[in-house]
Amino acid sequence: MYSNDQIKQLQNQTLSLLSMANEDAALVLPDSISLLRELLRFHEYRYYVSNDPLISDYEYDLLFQTLLRTEKQYPDLITPDSPSMRVGSSLNQQFATLQHLVPMLSLDNSYEAADLIDFDRKVRELSGLTSLEYCIEPKFDGASISLIYENDLLVRATTRGDGVEGEDITNNIRQIRSIPLKAAFSRLGIRQIEIRGEIIMSKAAFARYNSLLATRNLPPLANPRNAASGSLRMKDPKEVAERNLDAFLYHISYYQLDGDGSLTDKPAGKYLQSHSGSLSLLWELGFRSPQKEKKVVTGIQPVIDYCLEFESKRDDLPYEIDGMVVKVNDIALQDQLGMTSHHPRWAIAFKFKARQATTHLRSVEFQVGRTGAITPVAKLDPVFLGGVTVSSISVHNEEYIREKDLKIGDSVLIERAGDVIPQIVKSLPELRNGTEKPIAFPKFCPVCKSPLFKEETEAVWRCINMECEAQVVEKMVHFVSKDAMDIKSFGEANVRKFYEMGLLKDIPGIYELDYHRIGQLEGFGKKSLQNLQEAIEASRHQPLNRLIFALGIRFVGETTAKTLANSVEHLLDFAKKSEEDLLQLEDVGVKVAHSIHEFFMNEQNLAMLRKLETLGLQLRNEKRDKVSGTALEGQTFLFTGTLNKLKRSEAEALAEKNGGQIVSGVSSKLNYLVVGEDAGSKLEKAKKINTVKIITEEEFLQLVGAGS
Ligand code: IVH
Predict the structure, then answer these.
(1) DSSP letters along 380-447, please?
(2) Which of 242, 422, 448, 612 lies in the 20 to 30 Å Cα band around 627?
(3) 349 three-state secondary structure
(4) Which residue's alpha carbon is nearest to atom 12 within ligand 1?
(5) Are strands 452-454 and 461-463 parallel, antiparallel or unpaired?
(6) Are 632 and 659 in contact (CB under 8 A)?
(7) Atom of ligand 1 lying closest to residue 109 CA
(8) How far is the CA of 359 from the centre of ligand 1 (A)?
(9) Is 344 in the pocket of ligand 1 (CB under 6 A)?
(10) Distance from the CA of 333 to the center of ligand 1, in angstroms?
C-alpha cells in the first residue's frame, strides 16, 4: 500500500503538522486540507489495517480535531471521503432495500477431508485438468456485507439480505475504520467495483463490549458474530462506532473498467487473473483482506493440511473463524465452472468442529446469590460441547428470558466460543409441539419466601432479607474462597454441610467451630481436621484488604478493597465516613460509595466486625503502620494484558510489597502502567495521559530489583 519512502515522507509531514496542531485553535490552510486528510487516512490504515500505528491515539485525535476545526471554518471544502465524514449523526435511520449488482451466494459446506477430496475430484472432472491451484483463507465468523466503490469513493454498503436484495447500511459501515471511504481504484483502471466481505468483532473487542454491558447491568451477547451482525442495523451510527468493529474483505464480485480497452491493458489486469491477486489488490489499496492468512497451493492434500493447521490454532487467533474457504485460484476457470442456484462450483467452505449444539431446556431453577440477586439457571439435557459436558447455563434475568423467547421444553441452540462460558444463542420455536410452558418468574425468594424487589434502573430481582439462608451461606462460601480469606480445605461443600448440620451459622462461626463434633463426621480423618484447623488459624492474619473483599460488599472487588484498606487505620473507621468522604477515594463512584456506606451503617454488620476482631482477625491496617521506605513508595501501578513471567496476582503483590499501590483504572493518578501482551483499551487511554509511565513487565521487574 505505501512504499518505505512514502511512509517516511508521510510521517515527516505528520510530525511537522503535529507541531502546529499542538496549539489549541490550530487550523490548516485551505490548500493543505487535502494533505491533512491524506495523513489521517494513512494513520487510520496503519492502525486499523496493518495493526502497526506510527503515532499515538492522542496525536491522531489532535490531527482529527484540526481537520474538524478547519472544515467548520471552510465548509465548502468538505468532501464526502473526508475522514470526518465517518461520524454520522442521522438518528433513527431507515434502511432502504437495494438490489445487489451480483447475487450474494452462499458456500457449499464440507466437514472432513473426504469432502474436500470429493470437491477436488468434481472440479477436475468439470475442468478437464489433472491438478488445480487453490487459494485457501479463513472463513470469518461475522456478518457478510457488500461494498460498492465508484470513482474511488465508497458509495454504498448493503447487508446480504436474501442474497438478491439487502439493506442499505452505508452510514453504519462508514464507522468502521478498517473500511476506507476512498481507495485508488482509478489508478488501476477500475471505475466501479463491488466487494464482498465480513464484518467481525475481535475477541478482545467482544470481551470489552460484554464487560461494558455488565457495568450497565445488561446481559452479555452470546458471541462476536451476534455482536457484529446486531451492530449493522443499529439506528444510531455512533453506537456502531462504540462497538469497535472490524472488516475482512475477501471477494471481488463485479468491476467495470475505466473508458475503453480490456483488462489486459489496465494495471488491474495483473491482479484480477487470480483470486489471490484480487486479495493482493484489495490489500494494496488499503483494505483488510486475508493477505497474510491466505495460502496458494497445488492439489488437494496441501489444502487439507492448511485447513487442519488453521483449526489447531483457531483459539490463538484474535478473531473468531468457523472454518476455512477453499477457492479455485484462476478467475477464468471460476467463470467456466459457474454456479448452482445457491453456491459457486469453484469454492467450498471447510467447517471446523461445531461449538454449537442443540438440546432441551428441562427446567429453570432460581438461585439466590450472596447479594440476594435472583439468577435464573436453565437446566438442560446434558450435551458435550467443545470438550465439556454442559447441563446448566445462566439465563441472567427476566428480560433476557423474554428476549430469547425461552420456554420450558424448548429445543435451544447453545454455544461455547473459545473459553467463553456457554450461552444460549436462541430457542428454536419452529420445533415446538405445544407442550412447552412459559417460565414463571417467582415473586417470593425461593429460599426464605420473603417478597422479591427490583429497582427501576435494574433488570435483577433481589431478596433483601439479610438473614435469608441462601445469602448467609453464599456469603460464607465467598468469605472462605481463594481470592478472599483463602481458607484452604474449607470450600463450598463444607460450608454447606456444616450449615445444614447446624455447626455453622454465620461468618464469625467459622472461627468458633466445634472441631470435636466435626472430627466425628464421616470423611473427616485426623489429618483433614488438622488441615482445616490450621487453615482457619492462618486466615486470622490475612491482611485487611482481603478481609474487606471477603465481606462481599456489593461492587467492592479486590482492587477497591485494597484502596479501602489503604485509606483507614482501622476497618471500623468506615462507620464514621460519609458517602462524600468515600467518593474522594480512587475509583470509588456514586454506586460503590453508596453500597459501602450502607454496609457500615448497618448495626448487624458492625457487630459482626467487632466479633471478628475479638476472635483475632486483622481489622487494623498493618501496612499503613509500617514504614516500608522501599523503591515504589507512594507510586501507583496498574497491570494490563498478559504477563509472561508473573501471574497478575503475583505482580500486584510484588508491587505492593515494595510500597506501591494498585489502582483499577487509568487516570491522572496512575504513575505506572505495566503492559503485557495484547494490552487493550487501558494502554490506549494511558498513552493519552502524559504523566503515566508505560513500562514492560521486564522494566517493572527491574524497578523492584528482580529483573534478569
Ligand atoms: S466467499 C461467491 N470467503 O461464509 C463467494 N465467504 O457460508 C462467496 N464467509 O456468505 C463467499 N469468510 O458471509 C467467502 N473468506 C471467505 C469467507 C466467506 C466468511 C461467509 C460469507 C458467506 C458465508 C457462506
Answers:
(1) EEEEEETTEEEEEEE--SHHHHHHTT-EET-EEEEE--TTSPPEEEEE-GGG--S--EEPPPPSB-TT
(2) 612
(3) strand
(4) 139
(5) antiparallel
(6) yes
(7) 7
(8) 28
(9) yes
(10) 19
State in Å: Cα 194 to ligand 1 middle.
15
State the distance from the centre of ligand 1 to the C-alpha of 112, rounded, in angstroms: 18
Of the spans 99-103, 145-149, 582-586, which averages the highest pLDDT?
145-149
213 lines ligand 1 (CB under 6 A): no
Phi-psi region of 705 (alpha: psi -120 to 50; beta: other; left: phi over 0): left
Report the residue among 135, 137, 144 best suited for mutation to probe ligand 1: largest number of ligand atoms under 8 A from its CB. Answer: 144
Give the type of residue at 375.
T
**Is residue 325 in contact with ligand 1, taking CB distance under 6 Å?**
yes
Residue 663 CB-half CA count within 13 A: 20
User: Cα separation of 561 and 474, whole Å?
Assistant: 19
- Whole-angstrom Cα distance, residue 9 to residue 385? 53
DSSP state of 168: B
**Pocket lining: 195 vs ligand 1, CB cutoff 6 Å:** no
Cα separation, 369 vs 473, in Å, equals 9
Q: What is the pLDDT of residues 251-292, one digit of tens each?
A: 999 999 998 778 888 999 999 999 999 999 999 999 999 999
Ligand 1 nearest-atom number relative to CA 253: 2
Q: Which of 22, 376, 551, 632 is nearest to 14 (CA)?
A: 22
Is the shortest distance between the CB of 330 and ligand 1 below 6 Å?
no
pLDDT digits (tens, 9 = 90+) for 127-143: 999 999 999 999 999 99
Could you tell me the pLDDT band of residue 90, with boundaries at 50, 70 and 90?
A: very low
Determine the 3-state secondary structure of 305 from DSSP.
helix
497451493: which residue's cell?
297
Q: Is the CB of 323 under 6 A from ligand 1?
A: no
pLDDT 10s digits, 95-121: 888 888 888 888 988 888 999 999 999
- The number of beta carbons lying within 10 Å of the beta carbon of residue 329 is 23
Q: How far apart are alpha carbons 264 and 192 in whole angstroms?
A: 17
Distance CA 148, CA 193 (A): 6
> What's the rounded Cα separation, in Å, for the pair 115 and 259?
44
Picking from 247, 316, 254, the residue whose alpha carbon sits closest to that of residue 287 is 247
Mapping DSSP to helix (H, G, I), strand (E, B) and coil, where does residue 190 land? Answer: strand
- Average pLDDT (639-667) is 85
CB 314 within 8 Å of CB 305: no
Going by CA atoms, what residue is nearest to atom 15 of ligand 1? 139
In the β-sheet with 190-200, what is the strand arrangement from edge to edge?
153-159, 143-150, 190-200, 246-257
Given ligand 1 and candidates 109, 137, 140, 158, which is best to mutate, with the most ligand atoms within 8 Å of its CB? Answer: 140
C-alpha cell at 437: 410452558
3-state secondary structure of 201: coil
By annotation, the residues acting in catalysis are: 139
Among 146, 147, 307, 325, the mutation site with the greatest number of ligand 1 atoms within 8 A of its Cβ is 325
Using 50, 70 and 90 to split pLDDT, how confident is the model at 625?
very low
C-beta of residue 547 within 8 angstroms of C-beta of residue 620: no
Torsion of CA 164, 168, 172, 173, to 10 degrees: 50
Residue of 674, 637, 682 lying closest to 655 (CA atoms):
637
Q: What is the pLDDT of residues 518-565, one digit of tens each?
A: 999 888 889 999 999 999 999 999 999 999 999 999 989 888 898 999
The residue contributing the CA closest to ligand 1 atom 17 is 139
| Contact 321 CB / ligand 1 (< 6 Å) | no
Return the amino acid letter for 626: K
Other CB atoms within 10 Å distance of the CB of residue 172 = 27
